[in-house]
Amino acid sequence: MNQKVVIVGGGTAGLTVASMLLATDDPPRVTIVEPSEKHYYQPIWTLVGAGVFDKEISERPEADYIPSGAEWIKDYVESFEPEENKLTLRNGTRVEYDVLVVAAGLQIDWEKVPGLKESVGKPGSGVCSNYSYETVESTWDTLKDLKKGVALFTHSAGIIKCGGAPMKIAFLAADYLRKKGLSDQVEVKYIKGGKKIFGVDKYIDPLNKVVDRYGIQVDYQRDLLRLHPEKKEAVFVNLESGEEYIESYDMIHVTPYQSAPDFIKKSPLANEGGWVEVDKYTTQHMRFANVFSLGDCSSLPTSKTGAAIRKQAPVTVGNIMSFLGGKKSKEKYDGYTSCPLVTGYGKLILAEFDYDNNPMESFPFDQAKERYSMYALKAYGLPQMYWNGMLRGRKF
After folding, report:
1. What would be the CATH architecture of the domain defined by 4-106+260-336?
2. Among this protein's residues, is 162 annotated catalytic?
3. Does the chain have fewer CB atoms within 10 Å around its N or its C terminus?
């Protein structure tokens, strides 16, 4: 097959789709547009922030995972011209395609909380975040030095990577403080923009029991507006009343605002929210039939996790091959995603569910119960499956 598939993004979704396409019986030509030299396994950052692993375990060379037979363009996309089946790179080069796959992930909008960008990860600031390779170690550095005071953990309103991640680090921090005998000296607060602790009913009661076990104060319908790092004060808004209030902190783990990359937001491919507008079952664009999107930058209404991509990628590849063969899309994605909810050191609730928040559990036991086996799966099993299986195009 001489038709050309251009994949924008060499992250989880882009590499998985590229590898799967090149493993088909009649593979198309595949080009990956990705400027980064490094690839990161981001799900492990929760455990890096809790001192379980060093951050270097999450980083590998991008070149090691570009599949054999794919062309790699190391540049940024500047714009899309879907009516002409072309995109323009930052260096001015125009790239043509027969099929376009947009898998560019999310961008972290640090600047949307005034005071955050200049203070996060800075020694002594008390401000930390697991949401980048550069800042993730600051979470552990701050936590292990904390002996008394108030530790805040924010979960911003809006769409973020893995909706359970802000809660996981709050649980791990509370468990660490308990083990160190500091629970009475440090008050832990989890402040969330949403209305409840988790979106799937089956897991709500078990998670609330974890909250009670650690004595965590949970405030819902609250969002972080700005920081005053020089005073160690955070300004929040009550989303119900609109009133602003101040919380003092000795440690604050911030979940920053996140959105689709700017070059997607301003493109003809985006919907009103800035996401690549695709059919939620086929991952095919709603207006440009030769465009597909999956993963974090897509409009697929499910949690933005690697586990979701694991199920989206085979659907996308199957429908791309159908399109190239002149056939209609037939593969369907049901919204499956997974959130390994770490509830403490050696404890995990494995939440798996679909578009309708119905549980879709993989194991023959109640996954709403905390288990070490599921913690071991996250800490040791899933990274191996990721590096050696998923990115190599293997289905599982």
Report:
1. 3-Layer(bba) Sandwich (3.50)
2. yes
3. C
